[in-house]
Write a structure and sequence with these properties.
Blueprint lengths: L1 H16 L8 E2 L3 E3 L3 E4 L4 E4 L8 E9 L5 E10 L1 E4 L2 E3 L9 E7 L8 E8 L7 H24 L1
Antiparallel strand pairs: 1-4, 2-3, 3-8, 4-7, 5-6, 5-9, 9-10
Length: about 150
């Protein structure tokens, strides 16, 4: 019995002593989101260290979505492992509702699960709010009432 306990304990110690490889992409910048793009003044560095392709590269997706769920940009790429400047992500579609969310995801593959590197929210100041549309509608109604009154007077 003690021999069996020794073998189990020794096996457990050897297993726990083995080095564990943890891959985690990272981003150290500050992303600014506007109505047309997402960019980093930094430059912010994206560190790619997940070989999710089996060929020494990291396959990833950068996605921008507005508050309605409309995909503004969906960008896929594959780069060699290393450090890269984020740069500029120009939207293909104009946002119609805040907030705008930009997400960087290292894709699943080569035995690795997908990993979300970052998800950053921003807003577009030129998207009309409900109160702006309410004012426009109210001005139109008042204008139509004014026209109706003028027609009766003339």
């Amino acid at each position: 019995m003690s021999r069996r306990l020794f073998i189990v304990s020794a096996s457990l110690m050897v297993f726990l002593a083995l080095p564990t490889v943890v891959s985690a992409d990272s981003y150290n910048g500050t992303l600014t989101i506007t109505c047309t793009d997402a960019f980093d003044f930094g430059p912010g560095i994206i560190h790619l260290d997940r070989d999710n392709t089996g060929s020494g590269t990291d396959s990833f997706e950068i996605k921008a979505v507005d508050g309605n769920g409309t995909v503004l940009k969906d960008f896929f790429n594959e780069l060699s492992l290393g450090d890269y400047v984020f740069g500029n992500l120009i939207f293909d579609v104009a946002p119609t509702r805040n907030p705008i969310t930009v997400t960087f995801t290292s894709l699943a593959g080569n035995g690795l699960l997908a990993q979300q590197v970052f998800s950053i929210e921003g807003s577009c100041n030129s998207i009309p709010t409900l109160s702006t549309w309410g004012l426009v509608l109210m001005a139109a109604v008042v204008g139509l009432i004014g026209l109706a009154v003028l027609r009766r007077l003339l």
